[in-house]
Amino acid sequence: MLAYLAGLSPVKTALWCYLIWYLNVLSLYFDPSPQTWITALGIAAIVGTANNLNALSGRQNGQGFDPWMGLRFFLAPFCVASFAAMVKGRGFILVFPPTLAENLRGLIGCLLFVALALAARRFHPAES
């Protein structure tokens, strides 16, 4: 795990922070309604398939398919759809919860993750 964190690119670090923010909001505003999650799964299936087809059509011959990228193409629309359903009518401004404490909780989670990745990079330098 240390090697993984040490090798994280800035883009993947940002993606992890998005997930941390989503999980923070999920823990605070979880909606137990099956309809929310079924709808999110349906949107993820439709949009994720389209995203994967688009990515596959742009591949050059011999390029392999990255299964983690494929998973992210499904995960992103699932998170967006469920996030929108969870926060509707809850006083959010864009993606920011209505209270400072809730925002700080998400921000601190992201900052701790970035600090962990930077520490891993320092103590486990990339192999050349």
From TrEMBL:
The keyword Transmembrane helix applies. Keywords: Membrane, Transmembrane, Transmembrane helix. The chain crosses the membrane at residues 12-30, 36-56, 68-86, 106-123. This is Uncharacterized protein. It comes from Acanthopleuribacter pedis.
